[in-house]
Write a structure and sequence with these properties.
Elements lengths: L3 H4 L7 E5 L4 H12 L3 E6 L2 H15 L3 E5 L5 H15 L4 E4 L15 H29 L2 E6 L12 H21 L3 E8 L14 H8 L12 H8 L10 E4 L9
Parallel strand pairs: 1-2, 1-4, 2-3, 4-5, 5-6, 6-7
């Protein structure tokens, strides 16, 4: 009989779909699930990036990989991702809605309709459509797990993250809604990452790390591999009594006056 601790890293012959999976936190999760025995679908906007990541993962782990170009803000492309997954593997056990985007803007009044709609589409609409489509099939197949990736901006957005933060707050609301809609067969949870050292972090201002030292218990940004433990837990059968939850992975951030 499997023990709870053994379930944490046993994803043998399961299929895991990760959006935004070709780099950063998404790629770290893809690689971890593949090392734990899963077949993986790597979805991102650029097929070449997905293909490169898929080749690398397959060479390292021997697991089957499927690269799929998908702009999650596009409803039809979300549906195409579902179709491609089931055509290739016949099932999906874990969906990780990781893709996101936080475009910069000079001021709130300068935000145009196109930027506003694009930010909501990528961060919220795609999560809704993929959760509905994959989740309903998981219910029909008898079970599954959905992990949404939010942000600390959902709880403490800066003026430069007004739209992104609102969208991610919506992701956290969707997490609870889908947990209730698709329980008890499908569990739906949310990761709330803080700052991580991805390629995006190379564009941070020089003084940002001083802010982390002041406002974070761990006094630093996270490394991409540090998201993996929480993702494996939420996706695994060890988390069989965890649904509708938001788990912070933010280095112990405290927001407000420094």
């Amino acid at each position: 009989m499997a023990t709870p601790e053994s379930l944490l890293t046993d994803f043998s012959n399961r299929v895991v779909v990760v959006t935004g999976g070709s780099r950063g936190l998404g790629l770290a999760m893809v690689e971890a699930f593949a090392r734990c025995g899963a077949d993986v679908v790597i979805a991102s906007r650029k097929f070449s990036n997905c293909e490169e990541a898929a080749i690398g993962v397959q060479e390292k782990t021997g697991r089957r990989t499927l690269p799929v170009a998908c702009h999650v803000g596009d409803w039809d492309q979300c549906d195409a991702l579902v179709a491609a997954t089931y055509d290739a593997f016949g099932s999906c056990d874990v969906l990780i809605n990781n893709a996101g985007s936080s475009p910069l803007y000079p001021s709130l009044v300068d935000v145009g309709r196109e930027l506003f709609d694009k930010t909501l589409a990528v961060n919220l609409r795609g999560t809704f459509r993929l959760s509905a489509s994959f989740g309903s099939r998981m219910v029909a197949d008898g079970g599954g797990s959905i992990i949404n990736v939010s942000s600390t901006s959902a709880s403490a957005p800066t003026p430069g993250e007004a739209i992104y933060g609102a969208a991610k707050a919506g992701v956290q609301s969707l997490t609870e809604s889908f947990a209730r809609a698709y329980g008890p067969l499908v569990r739906v949870n949310c990761l709330q990452p803080g700052p991580f050292l991805t390629d995006v972090s190379t564009h941070w201002p020089d003084n940002v790390h001083e802010g982390f030292r002041k406002r974070h218990a761990l006094q630093r940004a996270g490394n991409t591999g540090e998201i993996v433990g929480a993702a494996l837990y939420l996706a695994s059968d060890a988390a069989s009594f965890t649904t509708g939850s938001v788990i912070k992975v933010d280095g112990g951030a405290v927001y407000g006056s420094s």
